[in-house]
Amino acid sequence: MKGSKFLLPALFKTLILPPSLFTLLLLLLPPSTPWKIIGYILSFPIVYIVRSNLSVYLSTRRAKALGARDIPRVKGRWPLNLDILVDWAKSGSEEEVGRMMVLLKRRWGGSYNTRVLGEDQIISSDPLVLKHVLLDDFDNFVKGEKFKDRAVDFLGDGIFNSDGERWKFHRSLMRPFFHPIHISPQLFAPSIQRFLSSLPTEGEAFDIQKDLGQLALEMAILWMTGEHLSDSTSSDHTRGETGYTFKDDVSIEWEEAKRHLGDAMTTAQRVVGKRVKIGTVWPLFELTHDPLIEPMKTIRTFFKPIIERAFKRKGLTRETDEREEIHFIDRLVDATDDRKLIEDQLINTLLASRDTLASCLTFCVYVLCLHPEVGSKLREEIRSVAGDENREVTKDVIRELRYCRAYINEVLRLYPPVPLNIRRTVRPSLLPTSQGGPPMYMPGNTSIILAFILMQRDPAVWGEDVDEFNPERWMNDGLGKREREGYMSWNYGPRMCMGQPFALTVTHTFLILLSRHLDKLQSEHKDMRFAFDVQPQGTAIPSAWTTKEGCDGRARGGKDRMWVVADVVLAIKGGLWVRFDHDHERTK
Ligand code: HEM
Questions:
Q1: Residue 551 assigned as binding residue
Q2: From ligand 1's centre to the CA of 452, what distance in Å?
Q3: Fewest CB within a 10 Å sphere: which of 459, 460, 487, 534?
Q4: Same domain, 500 and 409
Q5: Domain identity same for 56 and 84
Q6: Is 495 near ligand 1, meaning CB less than 6 Å away?
Q7: Are 220 and 139 members of one domain?
Q8: In this structure, which residue's CA is closest to atom 31 in ligand 1?
Q9: Has residue 539 been placed in a domain?
Q10: How many of the other CB atoms lie within 10 Å of CB of 65?
Q11: ipTM
Q12: How many domains does the chain have?
């Protein structure tokens, strides 16, 4: 049975052990039926409470022996902090969980232990702790076997799903092709241009978040494989000389898989996310059907012929070695003959790139509409450096755009696409703390949630103007300690994002071309604005959240005008609805 490695011990510990122990005790009591029933029922909470107190006692003793202290334990209103579990379950939505994390942080500080149901669960937004986890004690904080167990049907043996030597192997296999030399703005500019030209300009509202999701998928696939998702008759498909003869052998199944690839990826991510939330007993929720079968069939059907063709052109590619023609997949087939490994790497890279990139582009557009004065400055710089629409977007042009780079950094600070990360200790660890004093003791085999978003919105780290969208803070020569150690949107340490050059190239290219597009529309007195009037019901931001007093730690101190949620990545609830319009009244 799937997941039984962890499921069976967990079931034994929670369902079998407590009544067994109690039955033993009952041997000493009169064997009357009511006693047996009461004893059976009480055995569960009693064993939980005993186990919980014992682990607290042992942990505190070990901490003292090492000259450390405990990580503050949240004291809920009910035994075993069941009230916190109920609140989390009741909140039902990620943004409420986010708010709870903010409130718990206010009460318990930068690092705390929720200890729901007697299990240690650390949450931290202290930059020193995050650095310790991701860099200083890197080998001790892993993704872990439990995560792998939940994600293996989707991610296989890929970089996201591995630790230790296997992770090093993946990283070194992939690293060469993530070098900026293989990432050119010219590769992405035509797709972005096509995307912008397809947007309605006669005042119709559209959900640009959804459209950017598709654009990000297309660009990731293009860079990885050379395939044009939006255009089945593209030149790549007919370039027989270099092996791109796909158009001839394309099948109906493949066309179907291509059409549903984005949805299949989203479904697979949600299934794994749900398994992670349910925890060890997830297989019990999938007894009747495996929700990953269908999406994985679609994803594999899509990649299979692409991998086969990459093998066919392996020799040809080497002979011609025209760098622009070589894609990520060609490097993979050069490095290994293992088709399953190649498929896993492609799926892992697609997972890493699509939603994060879409989230980054979405919030770049969101901030343009939210803070028009910042948007004007950004467009002014782009106009002066790259305004001429005949000027090709090159790496040199991008390098000149200092404000644009600062703008992207500030978007990613306040709206990190990956707002939380998670790691698990192999052995106990001593966590440093920004408050000073002795370190905190973290037991082995314990999870820690790294709350990047809380750290990047913390006035203690970023100063009192933390909620202001201010790209200027990134414009100093050389980054300060705060910018280096209080900013982890790309992760930190050896496991830092490999796709940073890719994502930055795409985002710069997108902002340049968008800015030119907006300039053109401006000559017709049109501008891009929020289309609040068509926001789907129930997804408009509650009005109380748009004031500093009413937002209660949410909505960037009341500055947001859309409801920001952590779905698969950070996103806008219900979509980012905008229109190109000169009718001010309709969008107010
Ligand atoms: C703005 C966009 C992006 C952001 C904010 C971002 C952020 C991150 C973060 C936080 C991680 C760590 C995840 C973890 O520890 O589980 C990560 C890992 C990774 N990212 Fe990105 N990413 C972005 C775009 C991309 C793109 C476009 C690609 C590929 C083309 C990519 C490739 C990777 C890979 C391969 C890893 C795994 C690194 C490892 O485990 O050693 N990322 N990224």
A1: no
A2: 14
A3: 459
A4: yes
A5: no
A6: yes
A7: yes
A8: 499
A9: no
A10: 9
A11: 0.99
A12: 3
